């Protein structure tokens, strides 16, 4: 029973049982595929998990690093109160344009601002644009820079801010200290950075499902 086929089938089972059919989100996935975007967005059950964590955090200001086509962006933006705001950092101008169209269809374009460019370069612009004191941060971008993204996010956080980082297991490859993949090494550097960090409390969970064997890091700023 413990196989990728079972993982995928259980993901579908829980999606059918626990997540109502959503034509907006289905259209987002279809649009992303038609536009040739890579199918690396979170799954529906993962999207709902992010939505619920953001809701539990009572997040009013959300930061997302890695927009892609806006699928996770919509899940998170729907957790915001009427006066809430989400800013998302996206490297690809094409991905950002697709995401903007998807957000407009979801009627969330008034709550979301997308900044285009390398996140390492756009992070310093956030305070200048009035974005700071984030309540929730979701990091799902180039993994080799994860530790830098967490470090920059901490500067824009406050005690109680929740930070979630996706894809931190990489099918177990993170255990290999000599792995040649820059993404794997970036994740290992992030774990080293967070180990006994005085200002943040962290844990990690492994996941299996339609996206394979991976996991999330979840942290709370002290």
UniProtKB/TrEMBL annotation:
GO terms for molecular function: O-methyltransferase activity; S-adenosylmethionine-dependent methyltransferase activity. GO terms for biological process: methylation. SUPFAM superfamilies: S-adenosyl-L-methionine-dependent methyltransferases. InterPro entries: Cation-dep_OMT (IPR050362), SAM-dependent_MTases_sf (IPR029063), SAM_O-MeTrfase (IPR002935). Gene3D superfamilies: Vaccinia Virus protein VP39 (3.40.50.150). Keywords: Methyltransferase, S-adenosyl-L-methionine, Transferase. It comes from the Bacteria. This is O-methyltransferase. It comes from Halobacillus salinus.
